[in-house]
Amino acid sequence: MGTFGTGAFSSDGAVDFLEELAERAPERRAAALEYMFKFVKDKPELLWRDFFPDQVVAAAAVVAASLPGGEGFSEELADEDLASDVRPPRPAPELAPAALEALLFVAGPGRPWHEGWTDPGDAAEAADTIDTLSQVLTEGGLA
Prior knowledge:
143 residues; mainly alpha
């Protein structure tokens, strides 16, 4: 059984996604993130087969980490045990709307990210993660 935590990067699936992103050249990371968000939008029926909620949350948080207000996500990324930084080489506010749309698909109210939390404290922490992430993406997409 894998690790699944309440933070944006605190699950095995999220870490696997970050490792894959780190393998890409820095200048190709924004395109990879954009592709993921478009894939989620265009192929929602592939949730749980080709993509998972924790991967989408992590991808959205990578975008948020470079936006104003996303410093907490940036600090979380720095704490991950990765060989390199996974962020694109420059902030990508143009990705914020697509990241928010994909995030809300997997982690909006009543969506899969919120299923399975047996501890009320964990459920509240997971909801706080998504609320903060949504706020950063909303405000960052307006900049």
